[in-house]
Write a structure and sequence with these properties.
The chain is of the alpha+beta class and 523 residues long. The protein has helices at 2-20, 43-48, 53-63, 85-94, 103-113, 122-136, 139-167, 173-189, 205-222, 226-235, 238-265, 284-290, 295-309, 312-326, 328-339, 353-365, 398-401, 405-408, 418-421, 458-475, 510-513; strands at residues 68-71, 79-82, 170-172, 372-375, 380-381, 387-388, 393-396, 436-437, 440-441, 476-480, 489-491, 495-497, 502-507. 52% of the residues lie in helices and 8% in strands. The strands form five sheets. It has a four-stranded mixed beta sheet with strand order 1-2-7-4, with helices on both faces. Strands 3-13-10 form a three-stranded antiparallel beta sheet. Strands 5-6 form a two-stranded antiparallel sheet. β11 (489-491) and β12 form a beta hairpin. It is globular, with a radius of gyration of 24 Å.
């Protein structure tokens, strides 16, 4: 009886505390943020908004004078979320060493990516970055990408759209672009063609394994309590057992390729392997073998690049094509630039300012990666005065940044090329090492990160996006099946459009398309 009375008194005191100590937004968090309570933090508000986290965070950030909030809830580590460019620069450059990806991040991806560049910090990251930076600047790899893009577009993507136009049938453009991108990244990274877009071939097991693994890992990252998925992994049950099986498929496929490529290198050099003029292959896997890296290091590196490149460009292009269907005036402007004499070859669209602006504006509103998190190695204070504690998750929020009027002006929510076209003419020449994209600071527009971790594939991504946009728009008009639908932006490892982008396809005719030949080499 006494124990029961003590328990009742304790519960009553807790309820009174929760009711009477309701705090102003963020007051318990040492910064702006959602309404929080002792012990449970903002758990109630988080649960209410769990299905609209992107919009909820965006609203909170817009209401914060510093465009920074602190989210502190029971069951999760303290999280600082910012859309403030000064803070982003501090995190990604000014105090770079204090903001590694951290153990919580690498735990989520480690089973798949191992010790690949996207899942390591410190000296190991620096060594891999130095190697990959050299490889991405190599002419052979750039030429391989151009050749692969032209082959895939000519032989698969454009015929698939042409068939849909001839039949008057609807096609999921997002699915087509994702399969196209997977074929391209596998040919560039692994030197093999999975044939995702080839209707004569069965769906490749490797592609299915990557899809399943990415989906399960995304659920790991979004789990309210990490202990749940870690327990399932330890017990080898449920989704974690499926993940282990899919990772085994991926690892075995890549290791088999590495072994066969090593055997191939032992044979006399010949010119029939799709490589350079000396018979050597130009794909990333083969180049790493030539550099003398161990098999597991090569495996982890190429898997990292497949994960980074498989859905990012297709995500951006899906939203780009959808936005053009909503803004036909912009589509006419882009098409006018395309038909004014731009090269048909991959890499020949570099000076197309309108197309570049349209792609940048698309990714401002619909970034392929909605947010990115680091973990503070030591206590810090951000430029706006927000306190960061050791071990805090510190997130810069690309999706929200694109919608901040404090960052982009009163028209931040609008799709407008003026904000890009008003910049100097040479703004489209940004390289992978540049601190700007389209003339805008990477810390205001961190779609490709910024500072030392700036995406090495940025330039290659723009080449691919511009080539695909030019090849498709020159030949086809796309009409959404449901023109009134506003798609839902789903932020998994890479964002995608919920339900896909179902379109009907209409040929533009010879007076617009000109020659159907796609030039090789851009000469």
């Amino acid at each position: 009886m006494i124990c029961y009375m003590l328990w009742l008194v304790a519960c009553s005191c807790l309820l009174l505390l929760l009711y009477g100590a309701r705090l102003r937004p963020g007051s318990c968090c040492h910064g702006q943020g959602p309404t929080s309570y002792p012990v449970i933090g903002c758990l109630v508000a988080f649960y209410r908004n769990r299905r609209r986290l992107l919009d909820w965070y965006t609203e909170l950030l817009a209401a914060s004078p510093s465009q920074t909030i602190v989210v502190d809830r029971l069951g999760a580590r303290r999280t600082v979320v910012t859309a403030n460019p000064a803070n982003v620069e501090h995190i990604l450059k000014g105090n770079f060493g204090n903001y590694p990806k951290g153990r919580p991040f690498t735990d989520v991806l480690g089973d798949l990516l191992g010790m690949g560049i996207f899942n390591v910090d410190g000296e190991l990251w620096y060594a891999q970055r130095k190697l990959v930076s050299h490889e991405f600047s190599a002419r052979a790899l750039r030429e391989l990408e151009a050749a692969v893009l032209e082959d895939e577009a000519r032989d698969r993507l454009l015929p698939a759209l042409g068939l849909a136009a001839a039949r008057g049938a609807a096609v999921d453009l997002q699915d087509l672009l994702r399969r196209f991108a997977f074929d391209v990244i596998c040919r560039v990274s692994l030197g093999v063609d999975p044939g995702c877009l080839d209707p004569a071939l069965p769906a490749p097991r490797l592609a299915a394994a990557f899809d399943a693994a990415a989906a399960i890992i995304a659920r790991r990252g979004a789990a309210p309590v990490a202990a749940v998925w870690k327990a399932k992994r330890a017990l080898d049950v449920g989704s974690e057992r499926r993940l282990r099986e899919e990772i085994r498929v991926i690892h075995e496929a890549v290791m088999d390729l590495i072994r066969s490529r090593r055997k191939e290198r032992a044979l006399p050099v010949n010119g029939g392997n799709g490589g350079g003029g000396d018979g050597r292959r130009s794909d990333l896997l083969s180049r790493m073998i030539e550099c003398g890296y161990a098999d597991e290091a090569i495996r982890d590196m190429v898997i990292s690049f497949i994960m980074a490149g498989r859905d990012t460009t297709s995500s951006a292009l899906t939203w780009f094509f959808w936005l053009l269907t909503r803004h036909r005036d912009v589509e006419r402007e882009v098409l006018g630039e395309i038909t004014a004499g731009a090269s048909h070859a991959a890499g020949g669209q570099g000076r197309m300012r309108v197309l570049h602006a349209a792609l940048c504006e698309t990714m401002r509103l619909y970034p392929p990666v909605a947010w990115d998190s680091k973990h503070a190695a030591a206590a810090d204070v951000l430029p706006d005065g927000t306190r960061v504690e050791r071990g805090d998750r510190v997130t810069y929020f690309q999706y929200g940044m694109g919608r901040m009027e404090a960052v982009w002006g009163a028209d931040a929510g609008e799709f407008s090329l003026k904000r890009w076209l008003a910049l100097p003419d040479d703004a489209t020449t940004a390289t992978a090492a540049s601190s700007t994209i389209g003339g805008v600071s990477t810390f205001k527009y961190p779609v490709f990160q910024g500072g030392p971790r700036t995406c090495l594939g940025k330039e290659m991504a723009f080449v691919q996006m511009k080539f695909v946009a030019t090849a498709v728009l020159r030949r086809f008009e796309l009409i959404p099946v449901d023109e009134g639908r506003v798609p839902v932006f789903v932020p998994l490892l890479t964002a995608h459009m919920a339900g896909g982008l179902n379109v009907t396809v209409r040929s533009r005719g010879d007076q617009i398309t000109g020659s159907t030949h796609i030039a090789a080499g851009g000469k």
